[in-house]
Amino acid sequence: MARPKGGDSITPRKGGAKGRALRPRQVYVYTEGEVTEPEYIDLIIKNGVPDKPGRTAQHHIENPNAEGKLRKPYRMVQDAVRTLRKVEREAKAAGLKPYRVTGGVEEGDWNWPQVWVLFDRDDHQGIPEAVRLAEKEGIRIAYSHPCFELWRLLHYSNYTSTFGGVCGDANSRLRSSRGFAETYGRGVRTVTEQQSKHVREEQVLSPQGTNGSRYREARKWARAINKRCESSNPNDWDPYTDVWSFVEEGLLLKHY
Questions:
Q1: pLDDT tens digits for 171-183?
Q2: Domain membership of residue 34 as a residue range
């Protein structure tokens, strides 16, 4: 199980309860994209502001070199279940207790490990089945319809219309956003879809001194469009993205 980011797996350490309380949360992530999502996560971990002092997270991209057929939503959730069971055993051996929040009251250790799967609608089969399996097994999901580019687009503007499930449309609107092309270099006026897979700091980070304003706007707009989704079938949620839940609930950041 690859862990190229963040550090080693959870192992017993000296220091007792105090030592456990200071340990970062280990977050294991499966991403559908090989480039965009991992680059985005690296960037916000580096520049993000923790929600609570002393609470940090270390992330591990679990499928950095996986081939395409292993990056389908249902398959990633299946792999994530195996990862979760393993890291939960390690956490218990280290003396950690399962974490949950009930009625606003925290129980257990905040740094209990989490496993997340980030995937898009695209034209994948088995999205509802992947969501149900994740809910049953305790896997966290960040889902975007039609694709992750919607979340990036919301850092530029409030977009509420349907994409008809076409990720290329979302990517095109992102690439045509004012100031987007220039983030790839002085004088750059157009960016190819392939180039746009690489995330630049200027595309997501808030201007200095604005207290996470850009992230907060993107989050506000995402929550608003999500509320419009009435179907119980995630295939029909167009547009939709809850990547902000991964930022806050998984990585323990309040903004970036």
A1: 999 999 999 999 9
A2: 16-255
